[in-house]
Amino acid sequence: MSSRSKKLLKVIDGIRSWNISASQVNSHGSSPDIVELLKSDHFQVGKIAIHGFPYHPTCMAFDPVQKIIALGTKAGIIRIFGRPGVDYVVSHPSSSAVIQIVFLVNEVMFF
């Protein structure tokens, strides 16, 4: 065996012995035991954010006064876009498609 191979084996053995001794120190109680109080019942999966263009858009309206665009979808959802930071999602009780959006003075009406 060459001297380089012997040196490499010594390095690997040193790493193994260091790793084994480090795991034995942690298993003998040098670190405090952590009691897990959290359970899966404490968490609930939910939608955090909506990204991208609405799925199955059916209609669109633009209000030049407020400078906002509203997009209606086949699932009954309306997404309103405006300047940066203005992005709202609303829906009506039924999941019927939104077929028309009309902006009124300071109001929005959808059919």
Task: Walk me through the structure.
The chain has one helix spanning 3-27, and strands at 57-63, 68-73, 77-81, 87-91, 101-104, 107-110. It is elongated and about 85 Å long. The protein has a domain at 57-110. The protein is 23% helix and 28% strand. This is Syntaxin-binding protein 5. One of its GO terms (molecular function) is myosin II binding.
Strand content: 25-35%
> Any idea what the shape is?
elongated
Q: Which secondary-structure class do the elements indicate? A: alpha+beta
Main β-sheet, spatial strand arrangement: 1-2-3-4
Rounded to the nearest angstrom, the distance between the terminal CA atoms is 83 Å
Helix and strand sequence: HEEEEEE
Largest sheet features:
4 strands, antiparallel
Number of helices: 1
What is the count of β-strands? Answer: 6
Query: Helix proportion of residues, in percent?
Result: 10-25%
Calculate the mean pLDDT score and round it: 77
Brief characterization of the structure:
This protein is an alpha+beta fold.
Structural key phrases:
1 helix; GTPase activator activity; myosin II binding; 111 residues; syntaxin binding; four-stranded antiparallel β-sheet; alpha+beta; two-stranded antiparallel sheet; Syntaxin-binding protein 5
Q: What is this structure's SSE topology?
A:
Layout: H1 3-27, E1 57-63, E2 68-73, E3 77-81, E4 87-91, E5 101-104, E6 107-110
